[in-house]
């Protein structure tokens, strides 16, 4: 393939990050969250790389769970949003997919149907996205028991675990603890990646790390490496042109950047059509020949411009790291007014994923 824009996937780093999550979670056990195509890294690839490390995966929906079976994974899978159609419950039972039930409609499908998959109940402890009210949990469990459906787990999701100063997480934890206390010996799960880094946080039986597995920081104002995480994706391209600019020359659509000194600039073969964020501001860093260099001008669909003035030797063909080991994806995300989750899951299918070590 001749286009030089690729996402290199470092599976050793994925395993390193998973082990870190597992150590931080112990004695709780971890679930590998591999939804959204393994946060953009390739769901089959990341699941296989973690197959010897985890005994349970979590995905958003049935299609993703089936993708895991098609990739040869046999472990149980947790469907975090449950099913969207009654008939999917039978597939879940047959495939050993554990179904989260968060809504009366899903409850009614179980009551009126014959399928008996494993069920976790979702509790709304304050995020107000999905889940039963804490006070409805035991009656929901009883209704399911009457039709022979066993509830084997309960979960909730935190709204502000990334914010060390927020008190919401402690409040949500307390609500969850009380709401599930009467459910007997079931598996309880609350923790996203951020919860692994909160001191004193109760992690219950199972944690659900996502972004930290891929090297992104789950904590506000902090980059992954500062937490001991390693970048799993290196987004990389090459310089395809260089040019000398005179003071006053503008670059790119809208002429949003103008040279104020003689400037050597380069064009990099990557743009928003590859998932690089169009909203990245002037100055967003990238890495060429061991030096950080700034983005200049607006990101185009297939290319973007960089100021090479500090790298006089830079030449067409040089490798450019957009994010990865040297440029934390979290830093690019801040420059684009977003989060690492959106950048990683937004790398488009035009960009081949290449496992590091496999050219
Ligand atoms: C229900 C649920 N659990 C766990 C996760 C993993 O969260 P994070 O990627 O912040 O670790 C997510 C991610 O959105 C989620 O929706």
From TrEMBL:
<dbReference type="GO" id="GO:0030170">
    <property type="term" value="F:pyridoxal phosphate binding"/>
</dbReference>
<comment type="pathway">
    <text>Amino-acid biosynthesis; D-alanine biosynthesis; D-alanine from L-alanine: step 1/1.</text>
</comment>
<feature type="active site" description="Proton acceptor; specific for D-alanine">
    <location>
        <position position="35"/>
    </location>
</feature>
<dbReference type="InterPro" id="IPR029066">
    <property type="entry name" value="PLP-binding_barrel"/>
</dbReference>
<feature type="binding site">
    <location>
        <position position="301"/>
    </location>
    <ligand>
        <name>substrate</name>
    </ligand>
</feature>
<feature type="domain" description="Alanine racemase C-terminal">
    <location>
        <begin position="232"/>
        <end position="356"/>
    </location>
</feature>
<dbReference type="InterPro" id="IPR009006">
    <property type="entry name" value="Ala_racemase/Decarboxylase_C"/>
</dbReference>
<feature type="binding site">
    <location>
        <position position="129"/>
    </location>
    <ligand>
        <name>substrate</name>
    </ligand>
</feature>
<comment type="function">
    <text>Catalyzes the interconversion of L-alanine and D-alanine. May also act on other amino acids.</text>
</comment>
<dbReference type="InterPro" id="IPR001608">
    <property type="entry name" value="Ala_racemase_N"/>
</dbReference>
<comment type="similarity">
    <text>Belongs to the alanine racemase family.</text>
</comment>
<feature type="modified residue" description="N6-(pyridoxal phosphate)lysine">
    <location>
        <position position="35"/>
    </location>
</feature>
<dbReference type="Pfam" id="PF01168">
    <property type="entry name" value="Ala_racemase_N"/>
</dbReference>
<dbReference type="InterPro" id="IPR020622">
    <property type="entry name" value="Ala_racemase_pyridoxalP-BS"/>
</dbReference>
<protein>
    <recommendedName>
        <fullName>Alanine racemase</fullName>
        <ecNumber>5.1.1.1</ecNumber>
    </recommendedName>
</protein>
<dbReference type="GO" id="GO:0005829">
    <property type="term" value="C:cytosol"/>
</dbReference>
<keyword id="KW-0663">Pyridoxal phosphate</keyword>
<dbReference type="GO" id="GO:0030632">
    <property type="term" value="P:D-alanine biosynthetic process"/>
</dbReference>
<dbReference type="GO" id="GO:0008784">
    <property type="term" value="F:alanine racemase activity"/>
</dbReference>
<dbReference type="Pfam" id="PF00842">
    <property type="entry name" value="Ala_racemase_C"/>
</dbReference>
<keyword id="KW-0413">Isomerase</keyword>
<feature type="active site" description="Proton acceptor; specific for L-alanine">
    <location>
        <position position="253"/>
    </location>
</feature>
<dbReference type="InterPro" id="IPR000821">
    <property type="entry name" value="Ala_racemase"/>
</dbReference>
<dbReference type="InterPro" id="IPR011079">
    <property type="entry name" value="Ala_racemase_C"/>
</dbReference>
């Amino acid at each position: 393939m001749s286009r030089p824009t690729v996402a290199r996937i470092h599976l050793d780093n994925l395993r390193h990050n998973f082990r870190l999550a597992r150590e931080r979670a112990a004695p709780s056990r971890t679930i590998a969250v591999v939804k959204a195509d393994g946060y953009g890294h390739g769901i089959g690839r990341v699941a296989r790389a973690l197959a010897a490390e985890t005994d349970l995966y979590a995905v958003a929906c049935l299609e993703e769970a089936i993708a895991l079976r098609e990739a040869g994974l046999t472990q149980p899978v947790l469907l975090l949003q449950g099913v969207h159609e009654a008939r999917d419950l039978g597939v879940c039972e047959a495939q050993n997919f554990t179904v989260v039930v968060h809504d009366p409609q899903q409850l009614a499908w179980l009551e009126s149907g014959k399928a008996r998959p494993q069920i976790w109940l979702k509790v709304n402890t304050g995020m107000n996205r999905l889940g039963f009210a804490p006070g409805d949990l035991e009656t929901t469990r009883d209704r399911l028991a009457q039709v022979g459906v066993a509830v084997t787990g309960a979960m909730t999701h935190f709204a502000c675990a990334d914010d060390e100063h927020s008190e919401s997480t402690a409040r949500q934890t307390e609500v969850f603890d009380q709401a599930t206390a009467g459910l007997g010996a079931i598996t309880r799960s609350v923790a996203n990646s951020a919860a692994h880094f909160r001191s004193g946080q109760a992690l219950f039986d199972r944690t659900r790390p996502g972004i930290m597995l891929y090297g992104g920081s789950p904590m506000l104002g902090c980059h992954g490496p500062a937490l001991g995480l390693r970048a799993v994706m290196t987004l990389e391209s090459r310089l395809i042109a260089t040019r000398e600019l005179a003071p006053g020359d503008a670059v790119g659509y809208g002429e949003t950047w103008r040279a104020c000194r003689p400037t050597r600039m380069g064009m990099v073969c990557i743009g928003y059509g590859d998932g690089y964020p169009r909203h990245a501001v002037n100055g967003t860093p990238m890495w060429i020949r061991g030096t950080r260099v700034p983005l200049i001008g607006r990101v185009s669909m297939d290319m973007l411009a960089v100021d090479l003035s500090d790298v006089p030797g830079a030449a067409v063909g040089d490798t450019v790291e957009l994010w990865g080991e040297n440029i934390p994806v979290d830093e690019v995300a801040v420059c684009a007014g977003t989060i690492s989750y959106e950048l990683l899951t937004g790398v488009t299918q035009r960009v081949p994923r290449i496992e590091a070590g496999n050219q």
